[in-house]
Amino acid sequence: MSTARTKVVLVIPSSERVKVLRTAYSPPLGLLAIGASLLQATKNTDVLVLNGELYSTENALVEDIVAYKPNIVGISTNVGCYKTALSIAKKLKTQNRYLIVLGGPYVSTMWKECLKNRPYIDYCVVGDGEIPMVKLSNGVPPERIDGLAKRDFLGEPHLIPQIDLPLDSYPDPDWSLIDARVYQEAYRQTYKQADAISACINAMKGCRWQERSGGCIFCALLRSKLRQRSPERVWQEINRLYDKYGCNHFWELSDTIGCDIDWLRRFNSLKPNRPILFKGYLRASETTQESVKLLSTLGYNEVFIGIESGDNAILKAANKGSTVALNKRATILLRDAGIKTFASVVLGLPGESRQSLQATYDHVCDLFENGMNTLSVCIFAPYVGSRAFLRLLDDEKIGGQYRGSDVFDWPLFSRLWVQTQCICEWSDIAEYNKRLSSIPSSLYEDNFSYVEKEYDI
Ligand code: SF4
């Protein structure tokens, strides 16, 4: 009987953008979750998780992957690291016949294009990575694995979609697969909190607003139903991280924690008597007296809200499901509860004009006067997976040029978007971007500066 072990490396490449907020202290939670499933469900599998952000060069990362002698390399992809993922995959395939599997949000949308254009990619996981990776590692034939996109006998991309499982059916992320202290130190430095021991958790996947309405025009979240872990399971995970590592600052990564008030009530009612603080995301429309009170009791000290624009017509065109008045109400409620508001605006939403840009500027000033603490500003980019991306590709000329591609020049796409969807000039957007990001306590989220690098993909 063979005792050969399957060795799996799970990799998150470094971001191609020069400045990305929060990457330094965000561990690759999705990979820790897949790693946990692999270790629990497969007897003969070893797992290594590597984060490209912690390497000074891509080649150093590739060397560590090769040194592990893996059978399977799973590489996570998102809009900020897809080209790097391809570059790593190509280098690996040139050296050895590793099985290369891409997963994550980018290829969950672009799996057809990826498999058509990149012969060195064997498979793409579409949706949750846990079960497809476990089956692959257990030697199940790829054609019998739902959620694993592959080429058929004619070389055409083919996928049998997987059914979304309840999140409670997966094991919790396995933190023993990384050195959590690296991320915790980065968190302490960023927040200047010497006593903070941080961790990330994810209570939900999906968004009720997207489920109900199709979601915001820029939303690149994979279209699926909202799935929630039970409040009991989330507390179990938090308590374990508290007991084992002393974690006391939790970054809750759900797209919006307020989308189900019953869930929030139950989560709150189970809170143990422990000094735990939270940060997380919330929609302005879900920021009510009750949700804020619950968050305050839970120990939330900062909430991230996409206010996006100070013009109701623009918010409507972006299908944001929010208004200027709701943004203001949210800021005031959070201020009164002693919770910091970190808001973000996006310039260049459909129909943007000089008038709406000025309205956004005025709105931001008003919110700062009413207790908002931090603002992040970025210029819109119609990323893969969003309805904006599809709308841009619907343009005959642009679509004709880019349909079928799997890599895109995002700064160029931003400009094409403004040209075709806004009623102002690029220079107007740039002017307001500069004005807004010069307000004290504003951060500019740089969509346009990429690490200078030639990709051999
Ligand atoms: S962008 Fe956020 S709020 Fe909008 S649909 Fe997506 S997850 Fe929901």
UniProtKB/TrEMBL annotation:
The keyword Iron-sulfur applies. Gene3D superfamilies: Cobalamin-binding domain, tm_1862 like domain. Its cofactor is [4Fe-4S] cluster. Pfam families: B12-binding, Radical_SAM. It comes from the Bacteria. InterPro entries: BchE-like, Cobalamin-bd, Elp3/MiaA/NifB-like_rSAM, rSAM, rSAM_horseshoe, rSAM_sf. GO terms for molecular function: catalytic activity; cobalamin binding; iron-sulfur cluster binding; metal ion binding. SMART domains: Elp3. This is Radical SAM domain protein. Residues 193-428 form the Radical SAM core domain. Keywords: Iron, Iron-sulfur, Metal-binding, S-adenosyl-L-methionine. The keyword Hydrolase does not apply. Residues 6-147 form the B12-binding domain. Signal peptide: none annotated. It comes from Berkelbacteria bacterium GW2011_GWA1_36_9.
